[in-house]
Amino acid sequence: METNEKYMMRCLELARLGAGSVAPNPMVGCVIVCREKIIGEGFHQKHGEAHAEVNAINAVANAELLKESTLYVSLEPCAHHGLTPPCSDLIAEKQIPRVVIGTVDPFSEVSGKGIEKLRRAGIEVEVGMLEEECRELNRRFFTFHEKKRPYIILKWAQTCDGFIDIKRESENFGKPTWITGDLALRLVHKIRSEEGAILVGTNTAEKDNPSLTVRHWAGKNPLRAVIDKTLRLPKNLNLFDGAAKTLVFNSEKEKETEATAWVKIPFGENSIYMLLSELHRRKVLSVIVEGGKQLLDSFISAGLWDEAHVFTGNKFFHSGIRAPEFTGTLTGSEPLDADRLNIFRNRL
Asked: What is the pLDDT tens value at each position of the chain, 348 positions in all?
């Protein structure tokens, strides 16, 4: 492995430590190297707080060494005043002579401007080191800015014979039909803690009465969203318990309180796009679509998904609601006791 790649890999390792804490900002890692030795490193730890470059520079014990160092960073240093000052100005101020960048920032307020600032300051800049890996790490951030929508993760659990639920009557409403075990449940809650929002349809909200919160993992709750076209869902559902904010997409009401927002959208061919547009407006980088089948199928038929997380439990229903059918590329598989998680990507 080349020296530059080695240090950029370390930037990526550091960046991952910010997962679940920095959105809508990207995960970023930074390493400062002097005489082939790391003298400072840092990562963006929390949205609104110091960026990776600032933390790395502050970690250097002898600031004089910065004048003969190379700064490695997985994403282009910012060039604008947001919640924090521009990192490109700080790098120039510290007279760091060389900067190696993983990839250009797609955010319009930055996008090449940070690189331009550094070069105008006389700094040698190299761009594109492990670019594919750097984009992959922040695929949610890049999707948000380049496609103007959240990164979409479809998720469901199915039996060995391909069913996601039994055919239930009203007396079976109120609790989910469990297909997978405790280990899979904990992983689902870990994934929730790292994503921006979670979406279900009316039938799932009514039948399963899900909380859609993080209860079996340490982390923040995602924004909860439910489609309830005619506002028929009872107010005693867990979705309305105030444990996390809930968006209710409907055709009748527009109102927002601290715990609930009713978002009025036109229902029809473009309703999914309107829903995604509202999540984008609220700076939600990613959304987990948890079903049920009708909602999942609508995203699949529109080609609007990036990943599918399919949990297969060691059970057979023999009849019931069939799992969604889709075409994707298997990119990961993980055993979870008697269950298994397969992760697919949409290559369209």
From this structure: 578 899 999 999 999 999 989 999 999 999 999 999 999 999 999 999 999 999 999 999 999 999 999 999 999 999 877 777 889 999 999 999 999 999 999 887 778 899 999 999 999 999 999 999 999 999 999 999 999 999 999 999 999 999 999 887 766 665 677 899 999 999 999 999 999 999 999 999 998 999 999 998 988 999 999 999 999 999 999 999 999 999 999 999 999 999 999 999 999 888 999 999 999 999 999 999 997 899 999 999 999 999 999 999 999 999 999 999 999 999 999 999 999 999 999 986
pTM for the model stands at 0.92
Taking the C-alpha atoms of residue 108 and residue 70, their distance in angstroms, rounded to an integer, is: 26
CA distance 184 to 190: 10
Catalytic residue among 53, 194, 206, 290: 53
Give SS3 for 145.
Answer: helix
- Residue 195 dihedral angles phi and psi, to the nearest 5°: -110, 160
Cβ-proximal residues to 122 (8 Å cutoff; 6+ apart), any chain? none
64 is catalytic: no
24 burial level (CB within 10 Å; 0-12, 13-18, 19+): middle
Which residues is 244 bridged to in the sheet?
none
